[in-house]
Structure formats: C-alpha cells, structure tokens
Amino acid sequence: MALTQTLRDSGDASQLYQELLEHHRLHMLKGTVTKGRQIYWMIINFHKVNDSQEVVIGVEHLLMLEWKGDSKMSEFKHRWENIIRRMSDPLSDQTLQGMLVKKMRVSKKLKEDISHYDRLEQSNPEKSIGYLWNCINRAIRLQKEAQNATAQENYLKNELTSTAAPAPGPGDLKPKKSPKAKKAAKTAAPAQPEQQRGRSQTRTSKKTDAEIAKVCWFHNREGCTRDPCQFHHTNLSEADKARQIRPARSGSPAPKGVGKGKKSGEGKKGKSKGRSRTASPAASGRSPSPGGALDQRYCHKFLLGTCTWKPCKFKHLTQDQVDKINKMQQ
C-alpha cells in the first residue's frame, strides 16, 4: 500500500502508476492482490536500461568529484567510495593516492596532516592512501563528537532555563538606602502640596472647611491675578466651590485723576475718599469688619509652616485659635 501511494504521488512515474493500477484490476478479477515483490519488480523494470547504454564509471568521474568543504567530508567519502565500487576498470592505489591528496589540499582542518604527509619519505610505508583515509576518518569523527557535545549542552541549557525561576533583571533590583538616608527621609519636613489638576480630583474631593479656606476664591471662578498669591491655587469640585466664602474687597488706590492736582478741587482729602471703607485688616491693621472673610485675618502660610516673611503683616495664629474664631463667627 505504501509503494502504491509513493508511485501515485510521484509525477515522473505516472506511467508506472497506471501500469500498477491495471495489474490491480487483473488481480481483482482473479480474486487476488498485487504483492509487494511484484511492485518492486515493476519498479526495477521501469528504470532498467540497455547494457550498451549503461553509464561507464571511470577516472573522469573521480576527477569531476570536488571537495565541497570540511563540513561535508563524510559526503565526499561516500561519493568517492561509490565511484570506486562502480568503476569498470579499477585504478591502482598509487594513482588513487595522488588524486586523493590533491583534493585534500583544499581542506583547512587537514592542513597539518597534509604537511606531515609531505615531510614523509617516499620509501616510508606510512606515506600511503591508508594514511590519507585515516586523516579523513579522524576529522569526521572529531567533527561529529563536537556536534554531539554542542547538542547535549544546548539540551541541558533548555532544561535548566525552562524549569528555573527567571533571574531578576538589572532594572528590578532596587538600590539599598544607607541608614543616614533612611533617617533623613523620616525626619524631612513634608513638602508643600503643589497645584494639582484633573477631573478625577474635582469629582471625588472631600475637603474640610479649613482646607477650603486656604484655597483662592478667584482661582476657581474668574481667575486670580495676584503673583504671588498667598492662597493655594487648587481646583475644587462644584460642591466645595459652593462652600467657599467670597473674601471682602481689599483697599485699592483711587482711580487716576481723583484726589490729585488742583483740577479735582479736593486736594489731599480726595485720596481718602477714593479708598474703600472696608479696607483689608491685613493692610491697615484695623479690626475686621463683621462681613469680612475669615481667611484674611491670619497667615495661612504660617499654619502650613511655609511663611518666610519677617515681619509678616498677617497674624500668626495656631489651628486651635483659628477653630475658636470660626466657632465664634457661626
């Protein structure tokens, strides 16, 4: 059955396959089957040639045989032996020795062996074709042993790497901190919170009244124009913005032309009239008005520990004092 499938898949033996099918039909009519020996006989007869047309293997085929590299020495050996076996007129060992040594001079691995062969005297029995074949066989054996050793080593590497845990890479290792660095990190003061932006923060923010009082009212609405500003520029949610208290207007200079020169007709008194009556307590030092905002009566940066003004124009109150003021205003 396997021979039948082989002949069927072979495009060159389509004629042989048709003959095989005809033999199958004849045997089926007789109630028998075509045996394997009969198929082999059909294959031999299909490739048979006339005795007068048979290819004569001679010395020209040995001359056509080339040395195709040190990695294909075994292939060269098999073809050499095949040609010698099929030659109609065998050659002498001396002739074969001269032809073989010429082809071996191309080899790099057999260079030292050829040099030793050239140094031998002609009368030395070691200088023979047997010595040349021993050099080729030894090179083939060493090459095969090296391939087997490499295959075994690769197999062991694959087994070890597939079962062992992966080694940590250079980026996975964290540098160890020294005891001084750990102590300095613990005792370091907390950094001032920077301005944070993002929609997720404004949606899930839950701030206390004290935290909301430290945020600039104008930043979350029309935009703050002070640089630097004494309040935090932090985005608040709609609920937190509704809880903010708008600060009172601070004292601002009078418009140009008011209270200056003789054209105004008021002299120095015009300057005082141009100022707001509800001046900021931080700027004038007066007591805060009842409607004034609570977040301008004390220094907010002092509560955060970041006030650098000396002297500071705002009062430095503690958190307990601020909480008491808030209770009194409620």
Structural key phrases:
about 0% strand, elongated, mainly alpha, about 325 residues
Please report the total strand number as a whole number.
0
Principal-axes shape call:
elongated
Query: How is the biggest beta sheet arranged?
Result: none
Structural class designation: mainly alpha
Q: If you compute it from the alpha carbons, what radius of gyration comes out, rounded to the nearest whole angstrom?
A: 53 Å
Estimate the mean pLDDT confidence. 75
End-to-end distance: 105 Å
Q: What would you say about this model in short?
A:
Among the domains are: 2-48, no CATH class; 59-154; 248-286, no CATH class. The protein has helices at residues 2-9, 14-30, 36-46, 59-64, 73-86, 93-104, 111-119, 129-163, 179-187, 199-203, 209-213, 238-243, 269-274, 281-284, 300-304, 319-329. The longest helix is centred in the middle third of the chain and has 35 residues, at 129-163.
